[in-house]
């Protein structure tokens, strides 16, 4: 690289996370980044507009106290057990920085999971310890235990529950098991998709000082564009996160984000309606894709991870793109023949299925 002497050595070698495509062309059907197909609650929009007309000349509350109180009462935890950030990716970054930098000790993460974890390991100089998922791509508790024992001292454990991109939901006993094999370090459970059918471990926080839950408003609350995520854990962990945050950016959430997020938690009826609609569409779509010959992994999320025994996944993704439908294909080991398809509305599913039927039937894809 030219002038590479300008760049810090660590940054020169970074391999950043590649987010799914966000096309400017609105005619594409986006089933590639697990956004909610429904708009956010109308109450969210009202609150954001009210706030925009009020106080934008003033800095926001640096601690987002009202939002933390709202989240705390929603989940039945203390206000001091909640931390909020500019999207859960930022919360995760602060957590990696705060809890997992223990010299050469490795951070255990599944080999097939959310791609950002490895990127944060690189950014913060944390050696990752990849723990193989089993042949059906399920998280193997046994492999975690074997590796924790082999390493002796580990930096911690990070898992997504439900896992991405596989869609697998773990039981709370599985989480308890991971907490038990790693009592000296933090177990971070990323619950980005938990509202679509997973089991939240928030109830375990009271008994486990080493448990940190991370969630987001981007998926189940249809607010990917607002950037709000949060963590729940005992006060010791939360105050460490606050000290990282205040050493980085005191005001991660703007006024609009704080007010919009509060309204999203207040409109429980809308949340339940849209969440259940996505789950119902997912179950129907899973059966219909199986009917087209796809292997469909069981999913507790708002996406399906599927493979067709007769058609290359990269080719299928390309064919879908020509028909103006985006899905996610990860050309990497073990999952290169899978597609991750976000669950949309029933109408969007119908469009996907008719295009897929055309592709598989050897005819030109229809629009
Ligand atoms: C989408 C996603 C996130 C990031 O969510 P933001 O709050 O939008 O940053 C984190 N973890 C997983 C597993 C995700 O799928």
From TrEMBL:
The modification N6-(pyridoxal phosphate)lysine is found at residue 219. Keywords: Amino-acid biosynthesis, Aminotransferase, Histidine biosynthesis, Pyridoxal phosphate, Transferase. GO terms for molecular function: histidinol-phosphate transaminase activity; pyridoxal phosphate binding. Its EC number is 2.6.1.9. The keyword Transferase applies. The keyword Amino-acid biosynthesis applies. Pfam families: Aminotran_1_2. Residues 28-355 form the Aminotransferase class I/classII large domain. This is Histidinol-phosphate aminotransferase. It comes from Kerstersia gyiorum.
């Amino acid at each position: 690289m030219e002038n590479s002497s300008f760049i810090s050595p660590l940054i020169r070698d970074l391999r950043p996370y590649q987010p799914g495509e966000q096309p400017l062309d609105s005619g594409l059907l986006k089933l590639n980044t697990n956004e909610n197909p429904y708009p956010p609650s109308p109450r969210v929009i009202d609150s954001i507009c009210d706030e925009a007309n009020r106080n934008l000349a003033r800095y926001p509350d640096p601690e987002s106290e009202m939002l933390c109180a709202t989240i705390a009462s929603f989940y039945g935890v203390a206000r001091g057990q909640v931390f909020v950030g500019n999207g859960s990716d930022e919360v995760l970054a602060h957590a990696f920085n705060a809890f997992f930098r223990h010299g050469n000790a490795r951070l255990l993460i599944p080999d097939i999971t959310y791609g950002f974890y490895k990127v944060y390991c690189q950014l913060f100089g944390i050696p990752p310890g990849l723990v193989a998922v089993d042949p059906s791509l399920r998280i193997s508790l046994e492999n975690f235990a074997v590796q924790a024992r082999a390493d002796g001292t580990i930096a911690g454990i990070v898992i997504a529950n439900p896992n991405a991109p596989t869609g697998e939901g773990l039981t709370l006993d599985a989480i308890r098991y991971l907490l038990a094999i790693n009592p000296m370090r933090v177990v971070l459970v990323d619950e980005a998709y938990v509202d679509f059918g997973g089991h939240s471990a928030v109830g375990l926080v009271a008994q486990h000082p080493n448990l940190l839950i991370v969630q987001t408003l981007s998926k189940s609350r249809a607010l990917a564009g607002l950037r709000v995520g949060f963590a729940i854990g005992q006060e010791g962990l939360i105050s460490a996160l606050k000290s990282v945050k205040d050493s980085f950016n005191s005001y991660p959430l703007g006024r609009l984000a704080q007010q919009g997020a509060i309204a999203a938690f207040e409109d429980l009826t809308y949340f339940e309606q849209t969440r259940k609609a996505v789950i119902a569409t997912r179950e129907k779509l899973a059966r219909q894709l199986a009917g087209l010959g796809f292997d469909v992994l069981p999913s507790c999320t708002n996406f399906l991870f599927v493979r067709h025994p007769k058609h290359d996944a990269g080719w299928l993704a390309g064919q879908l793109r020509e028909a103006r439908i985006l899905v996610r294909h990860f050309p990497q080991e073990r999952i290169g023949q899978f597609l991750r398809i976000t669950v949309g509305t029933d109408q969007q599913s119908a469009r996907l299925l008719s295009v897929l039927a055309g592709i598989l039937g050897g005819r030109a894809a229809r629009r």
